[in-house]
UniProtKB/TrEMBL annotation:
Any one GO molecular function term: carbohydrate:proton symporter activity
GO cellular component: membrane
Family: Belongs to the major facilitator superfamily. Sugar transporter (TC 2.A.1.1) family.
Entry keyword annotation includes Acyltransferase: no
Subcellular localization: Membrane
Stated name of the protein: Major facilitator superfamily (MFS) profile domain-containing protein
Primary localization class, coarse: membrane
Source organism, top-level taxon: Eukaryota
Organismal lineage: Eukaryota, Viridiplantae, Streptophyta, Embryophyta, Tracheophyta
Membrane topology (UniProt): Multi-pass membrane protein
Signal peptide extent: none
Major facilitator superfamily (MFS) profile domain ranges (all copies): 109-350
Keyword Transport: yes
């Protein structure tokens, strides 16, 4: 037996199917489902029918009606529903379709962002093969302390960059932060490639460290915010893949060192190329729709969504952004909140 279930409240029309309430947009379309018993719920009326003429379902339907009305009142506050009706009848209802296929247009932008991850791995690994040769060239072949400074300064700069990357991304946007990040990456690579003193090498390594520290914060952030939900996990793992690719590239780049002791300068200098590509690529990449929405730049957010996923998914993604923003009630936390007394109970006493 074919039956339809609808609730009509003013200008809204909600379809009830299998105990769920679905938001719908656009034209109203009749939807039906197969039931052994036929029932419909409308504003101010309840009707039921069955093959056997059993009327015992009336009380259950009234309770279902009350529960549905409560669910609808809480749902329509956060959903935009358009319905058209003529002659008091329910017209067709177009359901919201979250299963639309994603556009592959996001992949080039993910690849551009992963240049930052590759540079992270490259700067970590490049010093391994070059340290012996640059130490001789800079006059510190026996000074293990200074060699240690050259190696560890990169990590010190990465610590600084990782603390500032998130703040810069929230203030200037994701793509602008990538372009700012390219500045210490380019300068650091240039200084290390042309260094004639240990001090210049250390400064260059520190600047490169700041660059990769910022990259470690914003690369996964940007990828997660532009990736479609159905492939977000897969694209998120690409960040780690490119870090490993960067380390491998640094080790391969050191192969000519045995025949050319001055090759270490080329090893450091070649990192300028992906840093420039990162800055140029981000100039043509769309900003994160989530960041634009948080800044109140709705037209720009819709434009970015069209570039990333196609115009057919604008309404869906904007709805997700609105519900995500309304569902977040937690206050922003600062670094000093880590030392709040409410967390002490989770620290074991020895």
């Amino acid at each position: 037996m074919q039956a339809s279930t609808h609730l009509v409240r003013g200008n809204f029309a909600i379809e009830i199917s299998k105990g769920r309430v679905f938001p719908c947009f656009g034209e109203v379309k009749q939807r039906s489902l197969t039931l052994n018993r036929n029932f419909c719920i409308r504003s101010g009326s309840t009707c039921s029918g069955s093959r056997s003429g059993d009327v015992s379902m009336g009380a259950g339907l009234v309770r279902a009606k009350n529960g549905i009305e409560i669910a609808v009142r809480s749902s329509v506050k956060t959903r935009s529903i358009k319905a058209q009706a003529s002659g008091g009848d329910i017209e067709d209802l177009t359901p919201f379709n979250p299963q639309a296929k994603s556009s592959g247009a996001v992949l080039p932008f993910v690849g551009v962002a992963c240049l930052g991850a590759m540079l992270f791995g490259y700067h970590l690994g490049v010093v391994n093969g070059a340290l012996e040769y640059l130490s001789k060239d800079l006059g510190i072949p026996e000074n293990t302390v200074m060699q240690g400074w050259i190696v560890s300064t990169l990590l010190a700069g990465a610590t600084v960059g990782s603390f500032t990357g998130g703040t810069l991304a929230d203030k200037f946007g994701r793509t602008k932060t990538f372009q700012l990040d390219a500045i210490p990456l380019i300068i650091g690579a240039f200084l290390t490639a042309t260094a004639q003193t240990v001090q210049t090498m250390i400064i260059g390594r520190f600047l490169a460290g700041i660059g990769i520290g910022i990259s470690s914060a914003i690369v996964p952030l940007y990828i997660s915010e532009i990736s479609p939900t159905e492939i977000r996990g897969a694209l998120g793992s690409i960040n780690q893949l490119f870090i490993c690719i960067g380390i491998l590239a640094a080790l391969v780049a050191g192969l000519p060192l045995a025949g050319n002791p001055l090759w270490w300068r080329t090893m450091f200098g070649v990192a300028i190329v992906p840093a420039i590509l990162l800055a140029v690529g981000m100039a043509f990449s769309p900003e994160s729709p989530r960041w634009l929405f948080q800044q109140g730049k709705i037209p720009e957010a819709e434009k970015a969504i069209r570039t990333l996923y196609g115009k057919e998914r604008v309404a869906e993604v904007m709805y997700e952004l609105r519900t995500a923003g309304q569902g977040s009630t937690e206050q922003e936390a600062g670094w000093f909140d880590l030392f709040s007394s409410r967390y002490w109970k989770g620290i074991p006493e020895f």
